[in-house]
Design brief:
It is built from 9 helices and no strands. With 215 residues, the protein is an all-alpha fold. The protein has a domain at 77-215.
Amino acid sequence: MPLILFIIMITLLFIIEKKLRRYFLILSAVVLTIYFLLFNYIQEVEDYSRHFLLMTNQIVFFIFNDFLFGENLKFANTYIKEFYSGYAAWQENIVFGGGVDSFYSNCVKTLRYCASHPHNYYLEILSELGIIGFFLILVVFSKVIQIIIRNNEFVTMSFEKNLTTPFILLFIIEIFPLKTSGSFFTTGNSTYIFFILAALVGLSRNTIRLNKLNK
């Protein structure tokens, strides 16, 4: 997952920053060449790559077969077990959830082994705040994304002047749906997320104000 998030972040950086786009193909070619060399000559790189593909395939098959078709496939995959525990806890109270920090008590009602949280923001919010709380969180996230998209000058300034790019990338990476994460409510993760939100909103408003003054 860190590798996937890193690739997404680098790709978004080249999309946002016009001055860097000319180097995207060159960098991609260099990175792929280095990776294939490491894959062919270092056994550990090959082993990790094959393990990554195996875990990914299991997750995809689990989602399509268990959630969509109800075949109840079983895998020795920690991520599947943790994500499924979040889904199982959510089913105890779909609309309002079980309350903050209620995940474990709801999870053990249906599953034998449960962690302290499902290691995914969205599943944790669903299990503890239900659809209502999940919708409110999405409204906040969507509003920030709307500000970023609507204010074109805010995200296409030159690299030297654009202070918002790091915060945009960090925000998108942090709320990536399939990302494994710490607890949203019982760790400092939510503080980190809302700090990024505050910085994005503040910088965007400042940019809009400056643009109006320049006009």
